[in-house]
# Entry
Amino acid sequence: MNGEPLRRTALFDVHRALGARIVPFGGFEMPVQYAGILAEHEAVRKRAGLFDLSHMAQFELRGAGVAAWADALTVNHVATMKPLQARYNVFTNDAGGARDDVIFYRLPDRWLLIVNAGNAHKMWAHLQAECRGEVQLTDLRGERALIAVQGPRSAEVLAPLVAADIAALKYYACVETKAGGVNALVARTGYTGEDGFEVFLPADAASRFWEALTAENRDRLTPCGLGARDVLRLEAGMPLYGHELTEEITPLQAGLGWAVKFAKPAFIGKAALAAQAAADDYPRIAGLVLDGRVPARAGYRVFRDGHVTGQIRSGSIAPSVGNRSIATALLEPGSATVGTRLGIEVRGTEHPATTVALPFYKRGA
Amino acid sequence: MAQPAGLLFSKDHEWVKLDGDVATIGITDYAQSSLGDIVYVELPRVGATLQQFTGIGVVESVKAVSDIFTPLGGEVLEINPAIDADPALVNREPFGGGWFYKLKLGDDAEKNNLMSGADYDKLIAQA
# Structure
């Protein structure tokens, strides 16, 4: 990013040895795929997938004032979080747009904040600018790794290597324990629409832990790249920063109204979001399913009755949605109603599509 | 890795099999492997007249859209009906069942602009 050399995670050599295709992402050289995106996607839906997410920035927050401070910068509740709980949140700007979407992990003596790799510099600067001594901020990038195990068999894959009883861990709960013999934080969180865990551990232990996991689970754990992760999260209706959420797209527009707590006394962008909610006339993210199989790519225009009514934000062929071509689009409110017939412009030709409810895919459905 | 015998190749990673003045055209194994999982192929209509080395369609993987540049000019005689329903056929059988289209060759001399399998191997070895 910004002309800086690309960074590598502690697992880079492991990825290369596995034959991964490496691409620049969020300032890092990251694996986009190993055997193939569709095979990796299937592994996560049916068995378990193994992801290196060490590119995501990990910031540690300490101090008695963390909760109140963070509540003033974000839309969701922070102070109401209990120790060993994780919660999704969005940092906003004055206009209510999203600076980043994040997860807070509350630990007994500190907090962990995970931000998107592509926003790491921006967010670090924002946190420092907003910090007035009530919070001690530490950037753990480079020191810590993040490995995710996602899929219906992830608990049985991970359990033998973790000291704590992870099967008993609730969704969006976490535990400080030993993983692969080292101190780690294990959370039941993820970004795939499946059951799964994320393991935060020292960077110098990451390769050994990855190898131990794959050695124990040859027939049921598949290394997965960012390509599969993107298809999985899109099917599950989860926003990707830069696509469904941006500095210009607010959490309300992204369908994250459930996370916007107007009951909080004050937070950055609250007035703008309240006005947006009251007017209820804003463009919003909706799901689209195309009649045909042509992929709808980010940036394609969406038409309704001959007029541009929005823009595709993400799109893919969706193996878990009958191999249909699915997309998210930022649409005028009238076009975002479920059942609306629209046209997506692909290389000069309109391809018919229908607005559907999100998510496209729910596990167990 | 040796290419199948009897084919000609373009620098854009298409292969050509000539049978008299009819050319069968597809993408190489190297191309399908580079693209990854192919999910959509858009080809010209039967009867369309194509100019050598121009973009005449697209092949899309999960992550990317790539142009197809026709390695020869001529009139489209047939497009492969199988790959519309099963685009992954191009990944599985790039030189066989995953062929793209057949052309009635316009100018026989255009094949002199293509390369042998041995030369194509050298090209992809440099990539």
